[in-house]
Amino acid sequence: MQADVRPYLVPRPGTVVWEPWYLFDADEWSLLSDEIDGWDPGTDLQVARHVRVDVARFAQETGIAIADVALVVSWTSSTTAMTEAAPSVRFDSNGMATVSATLVGERLSGTLSLRSTISLAGTLAKQAAGVASIPGSVLAEHTQQAVLENASSMFPVHEVDFTHTRLSPTASWHLETSTDLTAPFFGTFRVLINKRDRELSAAVKRGAKDKRQQLLLDELQASVATLLLELALHLREELAEREEWPSNSVGDVLARTIAVSPLHLVTPPSPIDLAEFRTQLSGAVRSLGRGRIFQ
Known about the structure:
The protein is α+β, with helices and mostly antiparallel strands.
């Protein structure tokens, strides 16, 4: 439940128990974590959760019977800004409701926000002072986020023929970036793969990878992570102007990139120190688990 004050009675803490979200993956259900590792862009997600309500306490604290409310689940993607919802679910007489939903992968990207609400399902026959009366009034809510595309591992990937762009036609990839620190990170940063590099294009597609394809992905991952860290260093002064940036904004991701990096430098180097700087960047990226790891 949010900390804001609503103009009607709401249940006290503990009356509603939000049980964990579960994700169906590899033919089994497992707890939904803060990051969904290995998610392929465009892949549907199947999620489910239980919500329990103390029926007597709920009616006493809100003035509304459990039969008059419903559990509603909606979700939003930080990159696509698309919001969708599953059909509402009624609670049984014991105060239990279970909701499941299939999230269309083509409409997902970046950070996924799952919002669960207990809302008034219709107009009450008798309306008392201080009791919610407008259908859809939210009496309790819970939000959970999950990162689908980790900023320091892999970005949204799109294939483009570089011969039709300003980019070098012989380059294999390009990272689109932004220095607008308040912009949504996953909406502005993406990796473009040159279709002319057929080997790399095949490697980034879904499915099992052979050894060479995995090496190509490791190299791409390390290169992108290195570029991200170097960009963060160049913008260090702007990043320091605020203690906290909006969640999942460019400033937020770049600030966290610097914070978790073992790199001790605080400024990009002079030309004399460039070679050593590149070596330190490479080591910092590998220490974060990006790219090919020593065996």
